[in-house]
Task: inverse folding
């Protein structure tokens, strides 16, 4: 706060009440004018800042479209369904990264959603009061760990661990089952889509948990008490009262987690293996949109190569934008219900 | 009674299974936190020494430290906060004070929440397009602006939330004294929400100090000492990325040490922010 303004305010009171004289009215009008001007300026400044936030989004979209234009023009719709990614012949297709992004995120959600919901259930229904905050914070700290840490941990600790334990086990278990054997085919590399999916699951777990917990807590106690009163078990209360009541909010939380998983870059880049191909086996190395950009962008030579990578970014942004918009819309709906 | 006993036992059993699973899930979640932090300490702690904080990043095969990336990270983060915080706070102020019920506020809030979770690598591409490409070279400044783009939504969100918590009576009392709106906002509302606003900035710092993706093609990296904002600048996350993926053992070791430093810093910041926010709530 600049001292000049502090004096200004005091002056108004002073001149209005104590000082008298010829210049009083004029001085007072001048001060009021200045205040009015400041007020208007500040108001417009804040409004401009709010609009700047919108401008940010517009800028991101616009710059991505402009940057991706050469690639979109060269490949058109085929960019989405073409698997080849060949910098030498300058033939680019986004199918492999899109596929990898969807598969890893799907694996992540498959694990994070049930686990996250169960943790939220534990925190709202079972956990002793004094442990709720510490455990809640501990789970949320998982979201605070930078993604590069997940990456380095995944590469040096988690991937070798999976290579020796889970992956041989899965190959052995499903090796002779008709459809599943394709899903778990190939040697255990350690790195690959499954590993990336599992790490993503850990990363989005806190998002699913904290939003589910918040909406679970917003269930009116009367509803739960009524169910308990007619003899429901805790599980039945959760299953038949809490979950139906909070469904919209839970889906919102899941979508929010999905948005995170889709766009996550560093952790995935370390463990995905960076192979531009679509393989049925989730043990095989693959790539995701964000990992491709992170790995190749600084080394991309030629306009078409760069433009193709930016086009990948555009696709990622559009997908996550839609997912996050749905998430926010659903959460907004439940917020309104709780508020109203 | 005999007829009711069987389903009753089944319901109890089902309940017990579900509750057991929820306890297991919680242990599972907490287990990862312990495991990751434990591994981090295990691999990184041995490398912590004075040299890490006083020497430059080494070429492979020789000794060195992380001084230039640490300083680089501090500069990039500080500048990002300096650029991002005013914009974020002003926008948050508009949403909570001037346009609380305006259409613009609803739209901005929606978009801001999306930006809050937008993939950070896309922000890197955006700044590459608008700054790096026109300037013709990578620069620390571009890195800071990229991080600022990530700071803004965090600050907007907390500023709005915290200002909304300020009781309206305070504003009404100040207005009744004849204060213009801008003075009410700056001298009454900001002051009442001070702890919350600081929390928001701390959260933003915690968020960006571990960000890697937006720096990869804006600030790039620098093997040498440089505080020139117009040149590529080293940063801790990017150096970790580069060193961890290298085949050299001593580089990998430095990467672990760097990872430990970042994590400790980020966790300390977010715990500080939480304590500050909790104090506000109880006072």
Result:
């Amino acid at each position: 706060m600049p001292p000049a303004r502090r004096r200004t305010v005091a002056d108004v009171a002073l001149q209005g009440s104590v000082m008298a004289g010829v210049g009083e009215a004029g001085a007072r009008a001048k001060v009021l004018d200045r205040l009015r001007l400041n007020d208007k300026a500040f108001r417009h400044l804040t409004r401009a800042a709010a609009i700047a936030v919108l401008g940010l989004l517009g800028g991101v979209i616009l710059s991505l479209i402009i940057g991706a234009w050469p690639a979109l023009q060269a490949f058109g719709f085929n960019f989405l369904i073409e698997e080849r990614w060949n910098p030498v012949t300058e033939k680019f297709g986004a199918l492999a990264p899109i596929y990898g992004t969807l598969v890893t995120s799907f694996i992540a959600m498959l694990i994070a959603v049930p686990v996250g919901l169960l943790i939220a259930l534990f925190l709202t229904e079972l956990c002793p009061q004094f442990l709720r905050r510490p455990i809640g914070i501990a789970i949320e700290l998982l979201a605070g760990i930078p993604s590069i840490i997940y990456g380095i941990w995944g590469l040096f600790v988690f991937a070798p661990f999976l290579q020796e334990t889970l992956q041989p086990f899965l190959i052995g278990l499903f090796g002779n089952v008709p459809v599943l054997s394709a899903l778990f085919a190939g040697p255990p590399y350690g790195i690959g889509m499954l590993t990336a999916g599992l790490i993503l699951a850990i990363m989005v777990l806190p998002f699913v948990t904290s939003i589910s917990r918040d909406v679970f807590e917003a269930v009116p106690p009367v509803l739960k008490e009524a169910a308990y009163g007619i003899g429901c078990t805790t599980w039945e209360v959760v299953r038949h009262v809490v979950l139906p009541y909070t469904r919209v909010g839970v889906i919102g939380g899941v979508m929010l987690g999905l948005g995170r998983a889709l766009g996550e870059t560093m952790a995935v880049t370390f463990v995905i293996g960076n192979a531009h191909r679509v393989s049925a086996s989730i043990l095989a190395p693959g790539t995701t949109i964000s990992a491709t950009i992170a790995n190749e962008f600084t080394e991309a030579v030629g306009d078409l190569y760069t433009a193709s990578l930016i086009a990948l970014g555009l696709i990622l942004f559009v997908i996550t934008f839609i997912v996050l918009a749905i998430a926010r819309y659903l959460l907004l709906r439940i917020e309104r219900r709780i508020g109203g | 009674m005999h007829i009711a006993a069987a389903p009753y036992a089944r319901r109890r059993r089902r309940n017990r299974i579900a509750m057991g699973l929820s306890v297991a899930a919680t242990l599972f979640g907490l287990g990862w936190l312990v495991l990751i932090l434990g591994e981090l300490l295990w691999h990184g702690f041995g490398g912590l020494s004075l040299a890490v904080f006083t020497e430059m990043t080494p070429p492979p095969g020789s000794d060195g430290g992380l001084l230039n990336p640490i300083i680089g990270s501090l500069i990039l983060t500080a500048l990002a906060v300096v650029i991002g915080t005013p914009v974020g706070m002003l926008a948050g102020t508009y949403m909570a004070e001037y346009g609380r019920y305006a259409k613009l506020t609803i739209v901005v809030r929606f978009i801001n929440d999306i930006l809050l979770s937008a993939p950070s690598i896309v922000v890197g591409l955006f700044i590459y397009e608008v700054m790096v490409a026109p300037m013709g070279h990578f620069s620390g400044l571009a890195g800071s602006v990229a991080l600022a783009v990530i700071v803004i939504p965090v600050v907007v969100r907390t500023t709005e939330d915290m200002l909304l918590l300020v009781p309206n009576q305070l504003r009404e009392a100040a207005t009744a004294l004849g204060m213009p709106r801008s003075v009410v906002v700056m001298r009454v509302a900001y002051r009442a929400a001070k702890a919350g606003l600081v929390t928001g900035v701390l959260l933003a710092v915690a968020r960006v100090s571990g960000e890697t993706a937006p720096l990869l093609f804006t600030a790039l990296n620098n093997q040498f000492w440089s505080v020139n904002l117009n040149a590529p600048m080293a940063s801790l996350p990017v150096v970790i990325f580069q060193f961890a993926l290298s085949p050299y053992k001593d580089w990998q070791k430095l990467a672990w040490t760097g990872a430990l430093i970042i994590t400790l810093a980020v966790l300390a910041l977010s715990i500080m922010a939480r304590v500050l926010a909790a104090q506000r709530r109880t006072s």
